[in-house]
Amino acid sequence: MYVAVKGGERAIEASWRLLDEARRGDTGVPELSVAQIREQMRLAVARVMAEGSVYDEELAALAIKQAAGDLVEAIFLLRAYRTTLPRFGYTEPVETENMVVERRISATFKDVPGGQVLGATYDYTQRLLDFALLADGNDGTDGEHSATHAPLATPPEEPMPRVLSLLDKEGLIEQETPASGAREPGDLSREPLAFPADRTLRLQNLARGDEGFLLAMGYATQRGYAHSHPFAGEIRFGSVCVEMVLDEFDEAVEIGEIELTECQMINQFAGAKDVPPKFTQGYGLTFGHAERKAMAMALVDRALRAEELGETIASPTQDIEFMLSHSDNVEASGFVQHLKLPHYVDFQAELELVRRLRAQHEQDAGEPNQEAA
C-alpha cells in the first residue's frame, strides 16, 4: 500500500496547517461537533464503520470530521486505528433472526409474518430539496409545524421470523447451513486475502468493500453480466445482541448491542436430475443502516457463486479474483493516489526513451528520401 509522503519538512508542516484551516472553514460559522455528526449524519457514520471494520459510532464520526467529509479518507483513518487495537477474541455468531426490528420489508410477499415495517427511509420521499432545512435552528420538525405530523409508529419489540421461512417450509429455497467438517472461517483482518477464497472470506471482503464499487457491480449483474434474476426476499434493519464467551464464565454473556442491516436476495433457481429445483440466495450484512450496501453485497455474493452452482463464468462480476481484488477502497485509493508522489526518475527514463525513438524514427524516415535524391 502506498501511503508514505516524503519531501521538504517545512513545506509538509505548512501543508498540515493549511489543511487544518481548510477543514475548519469560516470561523464565523459554529464548528461542527463529533456528536452532531454522529447523530445527524448516521448513514455516513454507518458506511465508515462498515468499511473501516470498526463498530464505534463516535470514532467513525471523528474520522468524518477529521477527513472533512471525505468518507474514503475517513475509512482509511478508522482502519489504520483498528490496527492498533488488541484482539481479545471472537464473539458468538449474531442471531439476526432475533433482531429488534426498526425497519423490515419484503418485495416478494405482501403479507409477511409480523407485517411490513417501513421505518425511516428515503424510499417514499420525493427527491426535492427541503429549503426549510436552511433556516437556522429550524428544520421543519419542531414548533407548530410538528403538530401537523402523525405520531411516529412504535417499532415492534418482538423478534420477527424471516420472510424466507415461508419458502423454506415448502423446501423451495436452498438451505444455508455449515457443512459437516467445514473448517473454521478465515479472518481477513488478521490474514491477507488469498485465492481460492471460499464464501466466508468473500463475504468478509464484500462487507467492508467500497459501496460504490459494489453498487456498480450489483447493477451490472442485473443488466445481464451474470446469471441473476433477483428478488428482495427481505431487508431488515435493527439492533442485535452481541455475545462472547469470556474466560471467567462457562457460557456466552451479552457484551452489548449493535445495529445491522441484513439483506436476503432470492435468485434464479437451480436443480438437477436427482435434486428438485430450488431458489438460490445472495446475502448481504453490514453495520448500521446501509440498505443500498447490503443489497449490492447480496447481488454480488450471488454472482460470485457461479462456479459453485454450475453456472458458466462469463462476466467480471462472476470472477472471484477480479471482484475481491478491486473492492477495497483503502487499497484502491492508496494505489491510485500514489501517482501524486514524485516519479521523477521513472519519468525521465521514459522521456529519454521516447526522445531516442523519435530520433530513430526521423532518421529512418529520412533515409529513403536521400536514396531517391
List the helices and strands and how they pair.
Elements (H helix, E strand, L loop, with lengths): L8 H16 L9 H7 L1 H11 L4 H10 L4 H12 L17 E6 L37 H4 L18 H4 L30 H9 L3 H12 L8 E15 L6 E21 L2 E13 L3 H13 L16 H6 L3 H9 L6 H29 L1
Antiparallel strand pairs: 1-2, 2-3, 3-4
Describe the structure.
It is globular and about 80 Å long. A hairpin with a 6-residue loop joins β2 and β3 (252-272). The protein has helices spanning 9-24, 34-40, 42-52, 57-66, 71-82, 143-146, 165-168, 199-207, 211-222, 291-303, 320-325, 329-337, 344-372; strands at residues 100-105, 231-245, 252-272, 275-287. It has two domains: 9-82, no CATH class; 96-120 and 155-174 and 186-332, no CATH class. By secondary structure, the chain is of the alpha+beta class.
Summarize the structure.
The protein has helices at residues 9-24, 34-40, 42-52, 57-66, 71-82, 143-146, 165-168, 199-207, 211-222, 291-303, 320-325, 329-337, 344-372; strands spanning 100-105, 231-245, 252-272, 275-287. The protein has 373 residues and is an alpha+beta fold.
How many structural domains? 2
Strand order of the largest sheet: 1-2-3-4
Question: What class, by secondary structure content?
Answer: alpha+beta
Oligomer: single chain
User: What amount of the residues lies in strands?
Assistant: 5-15%
Distance between the termini: 58 Å
Give the helix level as a range of percent: 25-40%
Rg, nearest Å? 26 Å
Q: What coarse outline follows from CA principal-axis ratios?
A: globular
Sketch the major β-sheet.
4 strands, antiparallel
Number of helices: 13
